[in-house]
Fold Prephenate dehydratase.
Amino acid sequence: MTISIAHLGPPGTYAEQAAVFYINWLAKKTGIEAILCPYPSIAQSLQAVAFGHTQLAVVPVENSIEGSVTMTMDTLWQLDRLQIQLALVMPIVHALISCATSLDSIKTVYSHPQALAQCQGWLQEFLPSVQVIPSNSTTEALQRLEQDLTTAAIASSRAAQLYKLPILASSINDYPENCTRFWVVSQPKIEAVDDISSASASHTSLAFSVPANVPGALLKPLEVFAQLGINLSRIESRPTKRSLGEYLFFIDVESNATSAEMQSALAKLNKYIEVLKIFGSYNVLPINAFGNEVKS
Amino acid sequence: MTISIAHLGPPGTYAEQAAVFYINWLAKKTGIEAILCPYPSIAQSLQAVAFGHTQLAVVPVENSIEGSVTMTMDTLWQLDRLQIQLALVMPIVHALISCATSLDSIKTVYSHPQALAQCQGWLQEFLPSVQVIPSNSTTEALQRLEQDLTTAAIASSRAAQLYKLPILASSINDYPENCTRFWVVSQPKIEAVDDISSASASHTSLAFSVPANVPGALLKPLEVFAQLGINLSRIESRPTKRSLGEYLFFIDVESNATSAEMQSALAKLNKYIEVLKIFGSYNVLPINAFGNEVKS
């Protein structure tokens, strides 16, 4: 059996690196082989799973410096039928990749807006007068570096190896503790994967809208979790896209959706919310920068 | 007296349009004249005020479709000394600007990532195979359109007029109810502006960190507001940038910071939070797409 995994491409992105880890982990656990399918955007990676073109997708959810990847959350809410199988937390170490011989000759730096934002202090200090140009992924601009020696790109050192390009500066992110959480998502029933993922899952992700913006509209749902001793590890608001000031709330809780306290919480929650979507229960695996599992 | 206003440039951005409205409004109220100072990023617009290069900045805070402008929030928290004077809510109507004679000849579309995201449905329907390239503002790519007839940019129709460029398609945003909230910010004391802005201000914005991620850590501060009948119009979490899973919370409340209930809330809040920053009290002005005040 071979399954396919969608991710943001071209090859060499951090999403691909997380997907490669997952492939190795899955092979070790189940013997299942998997192939990678790069897509031009995160939304298209998720749509690939929803429409059955691939079995899984690995998508970034949140970075410790730049925060939520809103495209992932909005697309999950819209598609309405994807389940999270596993979370991977991976350190992000950016490199400046260029065929230039020194920093002085660089005039333009390309990268994904998240990567540019994560290196803005370094860029201001070492390349204060370059033009910074956002691209659709960290690897999209790599192909043009060989033709233009005044350009550079910010991507992983793994991407530099993959494209056989020189690294001009390593570890250029402003905060050393830079890491990104990825989700492995599938359609609701993928048996082989479900078996290994849902057993003893530690986290559950869900999202809901509240009926009106009155004092305490968000408070009531939060009280439900607090009163049952369920810790929220994250809360994020997103616009409903209907009108300014109307929000959906995305919540990660440290509990399995099938546990007694979560069943109780979900039953009580219904009184205070409008629409509830549960994106599944899953475990969180910390992995290191080389794509190996970190044993705690 | 002439004051200067920083905004995201080049000229023709939505931030400039909001700033132009503010200039007219200010002139009518106080007789003060103002000049516009375009900056290449939102962060630099805010730094211009913090370091005294301009007296004011007009920056986007939140869009009804794409949500928070995280750059604005993160920079406000970091700079630590800016005050919000006024909020402006402006409808956003995007146009496809190009020197091409028809949609068929367009191969590349440039715009700010927020504008691209707000038109993704339209692009998928009418230009499914074009390359979409993010730029630093909606107007940055306008200059190249005349040289390359296969390119287009998404910006306001006002920008098309300003650069004397043809509009190929109007109102291309996916949701008609697309609007952005801008903040006019200054250093804490700008007397002429303070006088007109803080009187009877209806909203207050603040941000805080909580001491630990235990069940209910966010609940306690929210309960303070709810118990005093203060409505939260917005809550947004941002990473502390220290480690994944640690957040700051940005909150807008419908109350003046000098009111009795807010004074009481702020006193009680101190028990539950780590660091509190108050970004000021201000009024919210809805303006129409032509930059005129909407009378309610």
Summary: The first helix of chain B runs from residue 14 to 30. The mean pLDDT of chain B is 91.
